[in-house]
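Minutes, project check-in
Item: structure for the 315-residue chain
Input as provided by the requester:
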Amino acid sequence: MQRGNFSVVTEFILVGFSTFPHLQLMFFLLFLLMYLFTLLGNLIIMATVWSERGLHTPMYLFLCTLSISEILYTLVIIPRLLADLLSIRHAITFAACASQMFFSFTFGFTHSFLLTVMGYDRYVAICHPLHYNVLMSPRGCTCLVAWSWVGGSVMGLVVTMAVFHLTFCGPNEVHHFACHMPPLLKLACGTDVPIVALGVGLVCISALLGCFLLIFLSYAFIVTAILKIPSAEGRHKAFSTCASHLTVVVVHYGFASVIYFKPKAPQSLERDTLMGITYTILTPFLSPIIFSLRNKELKTAIKKTFFSKVYPEKI
């Protein structure tokens, strides 16, 4: 197709880690192991919550949904990345690139919304325990989960339609290992590109900051309520139910801030690619580990579910 003096791009080349030719095999093995551990960790959490009746509570329902969103998020990006690390040509069609962007943003923002819902759940449990069963009823929990997925889908649709409504007239080399928004916007042409880039950036940052603010307010009330508990044991028990969630929030938003709030000073494309690992591979890898190790109730249930038959004397 032709538009003016430019040919419209029909496929993109994901440059990715081809700038590190001697390290591609090492990256492949490292990312494959991290991906398998991510899948295994989330599946173990889901299986444990499913099998243990004592974990059939809103907090663990949200945790299961969070695990599903992480599995789907990594499924959209990492298998393609692993295949590209072993191939010579890293072409991806226009439609496949748009699909990858849509699903990655959908599952990524669903993850953020679910973390916000989990913060609200801890706020209700600690600050309004007498109203917990009413506010976090099965119907209420279902609505919160459903709206998280709807919100993520809307974000994915808005971002993808805005970006792929632009014209891409070449070159077609995306300096990233996935169809990420900033490097794609650099390939677009037309007078409306700066407006779209600004608008999409504001939408994404506003959604992330909104979620972060709600979580911050939840924990501000939680800390205030915990400090009013007279016994040290009671304070420790109350805070221990929030420790794993709070740690994941710090990791999630810490790495997200590196991407969205990094200075716009000139930097190497290789550095951008390496920074992309933090939120696409490292964050999903750490999340199930944190929840498994920092949540005493879940850790005990995992031992009971998976290790009771192998080491019965230790359970």
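Outcome recorded: Confidence is low (pLDDT under 50) at residues 1-6.
No further action items on this chain.
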